[in-house]
Amino acid sequence: MRPPAPPGTAGRRLAELGDGVVLRDLYDEHGSAVYHSLAGGDTHEIRELVRAVRPHPGPVLELGAGSGRHTLPLLALGREVTALDLSEGMLELLSARLRDVPALRDRCTVVHGDMTAFSLGRRFGVIVLGTTSVSLLDERGRAGLYAAVREHLAPGGVFLLSTVEVTPEAAEQVEFEQAFLDPRTDRGHVLYEYIGAGSRTVTILPAEPGPGPVDVYTTTIRMLPAELLVAELADAGIAVRTTHPLPAPSDRHRAVLLEAEVSR
């Protein structure tokens, strides 16, 4: 399904490009490689997440595993890791990375599944949802996530999830622009971030579009304050016991890692 046209400067750039634009979701089979190029080298929460996992024994379930930015460090802890994601393109990238690390891949099970409705027939000592992926879910999706997490946490197990908020100063600015290089192609891209009411829209397009169709990738991400997630988790019978500050991806964001366990 074609995503809606992005707002702000990105939308105006697309209008200038005209009928040659092919608008795609950032997380579909085409966009996954672009997302991996942008985020694959981002390590901003890995150290804190691994530190939070380490004291808790048992196998790890990683939700929204993507191309494996957290999966490989979790495997490096010596744990058995189940990596679940809805994007087949992302999981193909993860599987390719695992083929290059035979010492780790035998402890990793890759699962194509929906984090809002999964049933794996087993329980885990730790369930992880990083990269603020919870912001991709609407209220109904988050309720499904919490129910599935409850069903899959082992007694005494912990649920770790991260979220990001926009700072008050950034919220006043509304739009941001960032250039980056795609290492797969050595082509420049521009990322536009538009901050709206309760959400932010990210759009990526080539810095210098060539002739022919122009692939543009976009997604809208909810802004979920930690206080909202704490309240939702409590309603679902999952209590947040500790919060860990995270290094934010930029100075316009504030990030936190929540550590929770089943309370009833």
Please explain how this structure is put together.
The chain has two domains: 8-25 and 167-222, no CATH class; 39-166 and 225-262, Rossmann fold, CATH 3.40.50.150. It has nine helices and twelve strands. A seven-stranded mixed beta sheet has the order 4-3-2-5-6-12-11. The N and C termini lie far apart (39 Å). It is α/β, with parallel strands linked by helices.
Task: Provide a quick synopsis of the model.
By secondary structure, this protein is an alpha/beta fold. It has helices spanning 8-17, 31-39, 46-53, 71-75, 88-99, 102-105, 139-152, 168-173, 226-235; strands spanning 21-25, 60-63, 81-85, 108-112, 124-129, 153-166, 175-182, 187-195, 199-206, 214-222, 238-246, 253-262.
Keywords:
Rossmann fold; 30% helix; 5-stranded mixed sheet; 2 domains; 264 residues
- Mean pLDDT across the residues is 89
Query: Level of helix content?
Result: 25-40%
Task: Please give the number of β-strands.
Answer: 12
Beta-strand residue fraction: 25-35%
What is the topology?
Blueprint: H1 8-17, E1 21-25, H2 31-39, H3 46-53, E2 60-63, H4 71-75, E3 81-85, H5 88-99, H6 102-105, E4 108-112, E5 124-129, H7 139-152, E6 153-166, H8 168-173, E7 175-182, E8 187-195, E9 199-206, E10 214-222, H9 226-235, E11 238-246, E12 253-262
Parallel strand pairs: 1-10, 2-3, 2-5, 3-4, 5-6
Antiparallel strand pairs: 6-12, 7-8, 8-9, 9-10, 11-12
